Amino acid sequence: MHFTASVKAADAVYGVEPTPTAKKIRELFYNAHYVEDHTGILYALGFPDFVCGPTASPAERNLIGLILKVGADVGKLVLKKRFSAVKIFELTAGRTSHPVAALPGGWSKRITEEERQEILKLADDCIELGKLTLDVFDKVVLQNKEYMELVTGNVYKVVTNYMGTVDENDKIVYYDGTQKIVDTKGNEIGRFKGIGYLDYIAERTLPWSYQKAPYLKKIGWKGLVDGDGTSIYSVGPLARFNVGSGFDTPLAQEAYEKMVAAFGGKPVHNTLAYHWARAIELMNAAENIKKIASDESITDPNVRQELGSPVGEGVGIVEAARGTLIHHYRTDEKGIVTDANLIVATTHNKGPMNIAVKRAAENFIKNGKVDEGILNLVEIAYRPYDLCFACSTHTLPGRIPVRIDIIDHHGELVKTLRNYELV
């Protein structure tokens, strides 16, 4: 999330490390964000395609339709458990949304022992939510032959490099670590921290898009193509799964090993597997909350370092729920930002998303015939990426006029779709 990436960039601008306690609170807060965010994406955007059916009408294929299928009791349970993560937001950062506790060099809100005990109870709710989510995925997707063919087949497959964040033991982490890159075969081809991203990532401006297209600088721009030798890369839950060697919490590690076995190894290039990896990360984040909150030192009142003068430049990198997020600031002597560059997950995934949509469209759209069910089979290709175009285009309203021209194999226009009215 931008809140956390920005405070890490501010740490770097002031040349200061947060106190150990502040770092723990930040990680606690951040893992709670993972639980609530992954829950929302899975149950509102991911599961309806499977539970309600990929070609069901939009009136049925939504969160309400999902609840009608799985039962009101399950729906209420999911919402209740998710709110436990949101409550941890409030206890650690002052609000249930739009947190206010981040400061360069630390955190403005300490955690009392009473709050720590409450968080421990809330963590149990989050763990139960993680178990429930993995169980739903198992029963709805893994035990359904038709859906597993979609998940493991070639229609929703994009072969790219991958980037994610790992700790010193190569385990998947979200708040802090080293950014690691692997190629299409899973071989490591780079590691960096902070401003080192400039040695590995370049951005290309495309005349037809408001988004830039990142690529691996050492390979060079080769266009929006996948396969061996490509310079584009993917980020997010599946990328982290491919980059890391697992998790350091038991329930998530067990689920990770099950997924590796199901695909016969790594890397996994199947886009719909993002949902599976996301469900595993929800479990991991819940376990992390319990682990961090079990540390009594988190109530230490020393939550902020003294600041000196700004050093003029800083980079903050986190694993946002949807993928690697980079904030790069340059400032004046007062710490006022004079230049900023943000590379967000949806920007990193520019190439893979376009290829995924094109591949699905080529597979499902025949003879120019398009209906609601076919359109959704195409949309399924990009939903796993959990898009945020407001972030990736740096456009505050989050909505820009879009026209889609459907072209046949002769290059002739078949149909035009718009999200705006012609005047």
UniProtKB/TrEMBL annotation:
It comes from the Bacteria. InterPro entries: Ni-dep_hyd_lsu (IPR001501), NiFe-Hase_large (IPR029014). Its cofactor is Ni(2+); Fe cation. Ni(2+) binds at C388. One of its GO terms (molecular function) is nickel cation binding. Gene3D superfamilies: Cytochrome-c3 Hydrogenase, chain B. Fe cation binds at C391. Pfam families: NiFeSe_Hases. This is F420-non-reducing hydrogenase large subunit.
